[in-house]
Design a protein that fits this description.
Radius of gyration: 16 Å
Largest sheet: none
Number of strands: 0
Helix content: over 70%
Mean pLDDT: 94
Order of helices and strands: HHHHHH
InterPro entries: Hemerythrin-like
Strand content: under 5%
Pfam families: Hemerythrin (PF01814)
Protein name: Hemerythrin superfamily protein
Length: 184
């Protein structure tokens, strides 16, 4: 696994749990930029946490928020497209042989750009409506479901390059990635 500990909550308000992961992603991106940090550990932790997070959102959170009319089809699809773009950037980072090259630094910045864009939009267009349009009980139930799926994915080594390749291939097959995303 990784030297970096990934928190594994089992319950809570889904909005708070997702926000906690967003702050974890930001910290891991800072570590990836820091030449004195455990970049390999940060890369492995970010890969696992990001894949588990996004897959659990797409399986449990986005569909439930649509059923509750908190988000519409466009917002769900846009979130999934941004996950796919971030996963492609993550795969490019995982394919870097070392952590002390310009290629690695460039891949970190491409991932950071995609991830920070998605975090900003998701917090405004998906999480805000979840706060205001969905009851606390539903958010708690969603938090338990999301955490359960996320933790199960972490147990499956979802951050491995093989797993990430499968996630990216699935996104390509379903049309979530456009041809300009393949310019790695």
């Amino acid at each position: 696994m990784t030297a970096v500990t990934i928190p594994r909550p089992v319950a809570g308000d889904v909005v708070d749990l997702i926000l906690d992961d967003h702050r974890l992603f930001e910290q891991l991106l800072r570590d990836l930029r820091d030449a004195t940090a455990d970049r390999e550990g940060a890369r492995a932790a970010l890969s696992a946490a990001l894949i588990a997070h996004g897959e659990a959102e797409e399986q449990d959170v986005y569909p439930a928020l649509r059923r509750k009319d908190a988000i519409d089809e466009h917002e769900q699809e846009h979130g999934e497209e941004e996950h796919a773009e971030g996963n492609q950037a993550l795969l490019n980072l995982l394919e870097c042989k070392g952590t002390d090259t310009q290629k690695f630094d460039d891949a970190v910045e491409k991932l950071a750009e995609a991830l920070m864009h998605h975090i900003g939009e998701e917090e405004q267009t998906i999480l805000n409506p979840a706060r205001t349009e969905v009851s606390e009980k539903v958010r708690q139930d969603l938090g338990t479901a999301w955490a359960s799926r996320r933790n199960a994915l972490l147990d499956q080594d979802c951050g491995s390059i093989e797993f990430v390749k499968k996630v990216v291939a699935r996104a390509e097959k379903s049309g979530l990635l456009s041809s300009e995303d393949d310019d790695s």
